[in-house]
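Dear all,

This email documents one entry for the complex benchmark we are building for the journal club exercise. For each entry we list the sequence lines for every component of the assembly. Then comes the predicted three-dimensional structure of the complex as a token string, followed by one or two observations. Please use this as the template for your own entries, and keep the labels exactly as they appear.
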Amino acid sequence: MSKQILVSGFGGQGILSLGKILAKAAIVEDKNATWFPSYGAEVRGGTAHCFVKISKEPIASPFVEYPDIGIILNQPSLDKYRKQFKKRCFLILNSDLIGSDSVNKGIKKISLPLNKMALECGSLKVTNIIALGILVLFNPEIIKKDSVIKVLKETYRDKEILKQNLDALEKAKSLDIKI
Amino acid sequence: MQKTNKKKLMSGNEAIAEAGISAGCRFYAGYPITPQNELIAYMAQNMVKRGGVFIQAESEIAAINMVLGAAAAGVRAMTSSSGPGVSLKQEGISYLAGCELPALIVNVMRAGPGLGDISSSQSDYFQATRGGGHGDYFTPVLAPWSVEEAVKLVMLGFDIADYYRNPVLILADAIIGQMMEPVGNFDKSQFRKKKESKNWALTGAKGRPANSIKSLYLKEGVLEQHNKKLKKKWDKIRKNEQRFFVSDIADVDYLIVAYGSQARISLEAIKMLRKNNIKVGLFRPISLWPFPGKGLRKIAEKVKKILVVEQSLGQMVEDVKLNLPNKEVYFLGRAGGGVPSAGEIIKYINNKLI
């Protein structure tokens, strides 16, 4: 079965980049992947999202209806997709931009101040990678951290930027996170 | 087994562009429009580096006529656009067909009519499969359902165009254009038939009789002879170039007919229905013109009911009905950017077909 991932936030939070890094990491692991973005009709201040599917088998539809993983970086995104998160879904929420984070019962939810954590790594721009770090920390069967590191090294040639991203990927590890 | 890590993550739009260049296309002219902008952007970045010509034209009409000029000179040429822009290109496509010139035209469909919206649609099926412009003509139409297949069909499309001396259309929807998938093989050698000699091209007549390329035939009876000649070509294409894909048809009660991204979404529904022992199969036309009626009729023999699913209010369904006059053919479609989901397909089959 394919793993279905929904990433959503506002434009500029690295939503589409996060999805692409995931899909590229899937290639590193010789898996199939699809990445499908929202591509332009979004309203400023509203939500941008992408769907990623990862599987060892061929993937049929690139659409995600009921995600296995949700990465939600702002309040409007959670409000938009709240109903689609069902039991056993693993949800990563950015508490800096999400005030009311109630979701259906049975969901594994991690709510952390991702903006603040990103600033501690040196840039607000790595908020998305902090979330990705949480994903790989708890779900190595979907994507391994090493595969993501490989993609980050291929993507960012600038040493300073790469370091910020690698720090961000490890950031969640230092916290004692309870699900 | 060899590792497939050489694969790159590419969008359908980028992959179509790279496939064109890999297939030997050395002339691209186009005008930007969502949802195919990554295609023209890729061409802008790469075509000149690879020894070809890239032009962002002043309009879609200019772009298609530049392609006509390049094709007349014997160069593999292509253009791309989406619905509104492809409508503008129709005059040029008709001239290409009249002049018997090969070229590749890519339509990454968006929702219409009019300027519509940029979301995915399959609303240009009629336009693509019925010639599209004025005059008696057809263009072969190929519809990919994945990024990888888009690459193959671009290469095949150029081969068909050269072989028959006719423009060929790639009809993709916005989902195929925008979505990214791993894609690896741009090796043209495995797709390309023998290279067609283009001794008809306008390359300078020094040392040989002059060539003439035109679509105007005013002398009495001459145009009709030209039309008859073209008719022979359409007949040959109808006979030889029907292509389709099937899945889950070993034991089948209900058959879904869908193309492009909608076929993938349908296959997702089929997988789920099969888990509940409902025997549903998929028939996916790859060539929309010529419509693969022969294959469909054969498979439909053993099927109880047919469901056509489209991102339109009902276009391909007419070709299905033409081919299966004695079958119960149902239709599920959405327009205006609406995409029938796997869930909707399952619900429709459970409620209406069973």
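Observations: The interface with chain B takes residues 20, 23-24, 26-28, 30, 32-37, 39-41, 60-63, 65 of chain A (CB under 8 Å). Chain A has a mean pLDDT of 93.
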